[in-house]
Amino acid sequence: MAQTNDTEALVRFLITSLVDNPDSVDIAKRVSGDSVSYEVSLHSEDVGKVIGRQGRIIKAIRTLARASAGATGEHIDVEVLG
Fold first, then answer.
1. Residue 78, Cβ neighbours under 10 Å: how many?
2. Burial level of 62, CB count in 10 A (0-12/13-18/19+)?
3. What is the dihedral of CA 51, 55, 61, 63, to 10 degrees?
4. Where in the sequence is the domain holding 74, given as residue range(s)?
């Protein structure tokens, strides 16, 4: 379970490093069986910075989060709510 906390800290670090308003970043964790979803709420001006062109940045964040939790066997997803 400590691995999930590390994954959440990784997602928070990556997203707050990208945005202009890091204080407005809120990450909600939803657990369903062996699936964990991180729902990221942030300032509307920062949504494009997190998603990136053609979704490349959010895809990279998802890849890093899944690699971080790979040893636990959990399925990780990161969603941007805006």
1. 23
2. middle
3. 160
4. 2-80
What's the number of domains the chain is made of?
1
Query: CATH number for the domain including 18?
Result: 3.30.300.20
* CA atoms of 53 and 6, how far apart (whole Å): 27
pLDDT in tens, 16-73: 999 999 999 999 999 998 899 999 999 999 999 999 999 999 999 999 999 988 777 7
60 vs 43: CA distance, rounded Å = 20
Question: What pTM value is reported for the model?
Answer: 0.88
Q: How many residues does the chain have?
A: 82
What is the C-alpha end-to-end distance of the chain, expressed in Å?
A: 28
Question: Among 71, 45, 67, 49, which Cα is nearest to 58's?
Answer: 49
